């Protein structure tokens, strides 16, 4: 048992043998001081993510760890002392996420497990790791499904116009961010982290920095008139003294972006069993089945790496103007009359 985890118990045990009232009081105070000094899960997790960030691939990876171990997912754990966390506490965090989001749940569990492992090494915990899968959570959560990377629950593209029409009736910032993400076929993280210095409204181009891109390289997104109109709308919330660093879709906390869960919760409230990421698949299916745009143009719009090293060397451009035509056509489809209303 680690020294820090042992000491409060030894002090508490000593209270049973102390007969001098003064010594008993001092021992009791020592127990309380030890307990107060122990960090909460939230405090310790933040410290460890900061320490581990040097080994992450990029800032986006670090941001994902901060988000999943933050209040968006771990609100029920963050205020608990490390030594007090039980398997039931971990289950309370994981069970809601397991409903249709196996990949997210698996990553979240692994990150909690790593934090609790580090807490044991630091002496703040003892015994088994309550976030461990084998021999522990597997008995409560059932058989773990294998991760299926790249397959996110998607809305059939034919249903997107009706969904957009309903989305426009909502005044929430999450609704504006989600519509913008659908129209640009961008990843949710890129949308949430977008700042005004990345936006060129005159040219209707959004330049996403390499640090936020999965492929690790800068990506230009063509903005249709509909996407630009959303930016015009949210620009009213931009601070007057902003030098470009303000978030395009701000959250409720000052100088912070919209929560990573905001768009997902919007879908959950509508009881839709789809993911935000799935709209990229909706876009790709529409391109394949309803248009004559080349595959390479669609893949470029999604910021996917196409071809081998030699092929990419000969295709140095990003087909900007052809992608402009594609994104304009996609926006026209998204804003068309829902299928039930078409004549």
TrEMBL record:
Question: What keywords are assigned to this protein?
Answer: DNA integration, DNA recombination, DNA-binding
Q: Which Gene3D superfamilies match?
A: 1.10.150.130, Intergrase catalytic core
What PANTHER family has UniProt attached to this entry? PROPHAGE INTEGRASE (PTHR30629), PROPHAGE INTEGRASE INTS-RELATED (PTHR30629:SF2)
Q: Cite the Tyr recombinase domain residue spans from the record.
A: 150-327
Its name, as the record gives it, is Integrase
Classification via SUPFAM superfamilies: DNA breaking-rejoining enzymes
Species for this entry: Xanthobacter agilis
Q: Which family is this protein grouped under?
A: Belongs to the 'phage' integrase family.
Going by the entry's taxonomy, the superkingdom of the source organism is recorded as Bacteria
A UniProt-annotated Pfam family: Phage_int_M
């Amino acid at each position: 048992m680690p020294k820090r985890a042992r000491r409060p118990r030894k002090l508490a045990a000593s209270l049973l043998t102390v007969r001098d009232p003064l010594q008993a009081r001092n021992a009791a105070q020592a127990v309380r001081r030890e307990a107060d000094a122990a960090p909460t899960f939230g405090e310790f997790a933040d410290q460890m993510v900061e320490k581990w960030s040097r080994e992450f691939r990029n800032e986006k990876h670090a941001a994902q760890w901060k988000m999943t171990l933050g209040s968006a997912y771990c609100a029920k754990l963050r205020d608990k002392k490390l030594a007090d966390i039980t398997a039931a506490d971990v289950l309370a965090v994981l069970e809601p996420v397991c409903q249709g989001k196996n990949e997210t749940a698996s990553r979240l569990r692994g990150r909690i497990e790593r934090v609790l492992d580090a807490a044991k090494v630091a002496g703040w915990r003892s015994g088994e790791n309550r976030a461990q899968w084998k021999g522990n959570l597997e008995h409560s959560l059932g058989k773990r499904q294998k991760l299926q990377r790249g397959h996110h629950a998607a809305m059939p593209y034919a249903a997107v116009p009706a969904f957009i029409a309903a989305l426009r009736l909502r005044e929430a910032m999450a609704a504006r961010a989600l519509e913008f993400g659908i129209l640009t076929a961008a990843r949710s993280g890129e949308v949430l982290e977008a700042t005004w210095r990345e936006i060129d409204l005159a040219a209707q181009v959004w330049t996403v920095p390499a640090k936020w891109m999965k492929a690790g390289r800068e990506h230009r997104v063509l903005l249709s008139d509909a996407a630009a109109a959303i930016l015009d709308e949210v620009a009213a919330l931009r601070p007057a003294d902003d030098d470009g660093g303000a978030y395009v879709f701000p959250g409720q906390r000052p100088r912070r972006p919209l929560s990573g869960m905001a768009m997902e919760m919007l879908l959950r409230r509508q009881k839709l069993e789809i993911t935000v990421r799935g709209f990229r698949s909706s876009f790709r299916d529409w391109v394949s089945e309803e248009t004559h745009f080349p595959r390479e143009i669609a893949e470029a719009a999604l910021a996917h790496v196409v071809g081998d090293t030699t092929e990419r060397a000969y295709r140095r451009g990003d087909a900007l103007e052809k992608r402009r035509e594609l994104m304009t056509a996609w926006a026209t489809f998204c804003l068309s009359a829902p299928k039930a209303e078409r004549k």
